[in-house]
């Protein structure tokens, strides 16, 4: 087989493997380079961070821990009596691993079914669309392509005050591998990943303290929804300290000593485990030869245009290594767009309609602009909200917390933002994404028939509230 391909994709995460499959479906000769290796060191593992140590395993643990917490704390009020429910951490981790194996194995089967050639090793972009691959034994081989797609993803940021220390100070990947529930758990960073991991272990019995340097909780989230979420998280026992900047850590007598500064000065706290969740950085180290023609910015992200084309002709980059949110679904959509463009079509990703989700309980999900952003931009807008406390299905599910919030243009009524804190927000937000993708007005949703009783009725009511008024909650009187 020739070592020349129509497309070589570097990275087999949600951006890379989707791009590779799409390319093959379009009739192109495609190879996908991935250096992730199984724990026994014998075979290539596909799926990237998301499937192996990110989205999927964390959601498995979130689901299991949520069921455990329900059994221990919320079943009784619904008339279900459970005696001494306990958690088997080993069994929980085994289930997580099995789900990961199923999905990563599924990608290998999809590659085979579509005719994608997997190449095991670390890829490096050379000049003239050549890709050098170094295998596990250090041997290199060079491949040629008409197009190269960089999809190497990201990895957790490490910070000098809290260097990773095996068994004590871990990153988000290490937090998915605990063999027992820590009595006291510290989390540096109260962002999306920190909240999800903190929630898992808090539900299983850990005392969780979250140290967040920022003075605003979830600044990227609409603050009405963020404040509602914060109220619920505190009820669940998460001790979230804002304006708390970690200055140092040390491990003594099997405990992690953490010093941090807050409004009261220097503080100290001891934990059994500490998770560092302060964000992620692009995987671009040693990725590009000096003459590759591909350029990076000062933070290590690859420069691309709106269509993910780099400064080098025929070289593209997608996902976490380029501008925009570090989201698996964003990477996948960019991968499909790039392959369609290579095939001569002209699609574009609508970056205004990419959903964001925090998979806590309640979930937090949003798409489009927040009220704070619109205020700062001086845009005239109107708002409709509806609380899940007035939703029959949410009440029946013992999950009547949070709200749906729709923000629309004051003059045109076009939906500008769609925000949900509450049960199944990750599913409900898709309705907002579809509406915005088709340029819907709030009135379009208000005139749509929603099934009763469903959580989605809250979308209907929020859309009504943005216009003539919700039916199932008292509306604010309009000024005459």
UniProtKB/TrEMBL annotation:
<feature type="active site" description="Proton acceptor">
    <location>
        <position position="452"/>
    </location>
</feature>
<dbReference type="InterPro" id="IPR016156">
    <property type="entry name" value="FAD/NAD-linked_Rdtase_dimer_sf"/>
</dbReference>
<feature type="disulfide bond" description="Redox-active">
    <location>
        <begin position="50"/>
        <end position="55"/>
    </location>
</feature>
<keyword id="KW-0285">Flavoprotein</keyword>
<keyword id="KW-0520">NAD</keyword>
<keyword id="KW-0963">Cytoplasm</keyword>
<dbReference type="GO" id="GO:0005737">
    <property type="term" value="C:cytoplasm"/>
</dbReference>
<dbReference type="GO" id="GO:0006103">
    <property type="term" value="P:2-oxoglutarate metabolic process"/>
</dbReference>
<keyword id="KW-0560">Oxidoreductase</keyword>
<dbReference type="InterPro" id="IPR036188">
    <property type="entry name" value="FAD/NAD-bd_sf"/>
</dbReference>
<feature type="binding site">
    <location>
        <position position="320"/>
    </location>
    <ligand>
        <name>FAD</name>
    </ligand>
</feature>
<feature type="domain" description="Pyridine nucleotide-disulphide oxidoreductase dimerisation">
    <location>
        <begin position="354"/>
        <end position="463"/>
    </location>
</feature>
<dbReference type="InterPro" id="IPR004099">
    <property type="entry name" value="Pyr_nucl-diS_OxRdtase_dimer"/>
</dbReference>
<feature type="binding site">
    <location>
        <position position="59"/>
    </location>
    <ligand>
        <name>FAD</name>
    </ligand>
</feature>
<feature type="binding site">
    <location>
        <position position="123"/>
    </location>
    <ligand>
        <name>FAD</name>
    </ligand>
</feature>
<keyword id="KW-1015">Disulfide bond</keyword>
<comment type="subunit">
    <text>Homodimer.</text>
</comment>
<keyword id="KW-0274">FAD</keyword>
<dbReference type="Pfam" id="PF02852">
    <property type="entry name" value="Pyr_redox_dim"/>
</dbReference>
<protein>
    <recommendedName>
        <fullName>Dihydrolipoyl dehydrogenase</fullName>
        <ecNumber>1.8.1.4</ecNumber>
    </recommendedName>
</protein>
<dbReference type="InterPro" id="IPR023753">
    <property type="entry name" value="FAD/NAD-binding_dom"/>
</dbReference>
<feature type="binding site">
    <location>
        <begin position="152"/>
        <end position="154"/>
    </location>
    <ligand>
        <name>FAD</name>
    </ligand>
</feature>
<feature type="binding site">
    <location>
        <position position="212"/>
    </location>
    <ligand>
        <name>NAD(+)</name>
    </ligand>
</feature>
<dbReference type="InterPro" id="IPR050151">
    <property type="entry name" value="Class-I_Pyr_Nuc-Dis_Oxidored"/>
</dbReference>
<dbReference type="InterPro" id="IPR001100">
    <property type="entry name" value="Pyr_nuc-diS_OxRdtase"/>
</dbReference>
<dbReference type="GO" id="GO:0004148">
    <property type="term" value="F:dihydrolipoyl dehydrogenase (NADH) activity"/>
</dbReference>
<feature type="binding site">
    <location>
        <begin position="189"/>
        <end position="196"/>
    </location>
    <ligand>
        <name>NAD(+)</name>
    </ligand>
</feature>
<keyword id="KW-0676">Redox-active center</keyword>
<keyword id="KW-0547">Nucleotide-binding</keyword>
<dbReference type="GO" id="GO:0050660">
    <property type="term" value="F:flavin adenine dinucleotide binding"/>
</dbReference>
<dbReference type="Pfam" id="PF07992">
    <property type="entry name" value="Pyr_redox_2"/>
</dbReference>
<feature type="binding site">
    <location>
        <position position="279"/>
    </location>
    <ligand>
        <name>NAD(+)</name>
    </ligand>
</feature>
<dbReference type="InterPro" id="IPR012999">
    <property type="entry name" value="Pyr_OxRdtase_I_AS"/>
</dbReference>
<dbReference type="InterPro" id="IPR006258">
    <property type="entry name" value="Lipoamide_DH"/>
</dbReference>
<feature type="binding site">
    <location>
        <begin position="326"/>
        <end position="329"/>
    </location>
    <ligand>
        <name>FAD</name>
    </ligand>
</feature>
<comment type="similarity">
    <text>Belongs to the class-I pyridine nucleotide-disulfide oxidoreductase family.</text>
</comment>
<feature type="domain" description="FAD/NAD(P)-binding">
    <location>
        <begin position="5"/>
        <end position="335"/>
    </location>
</feature>
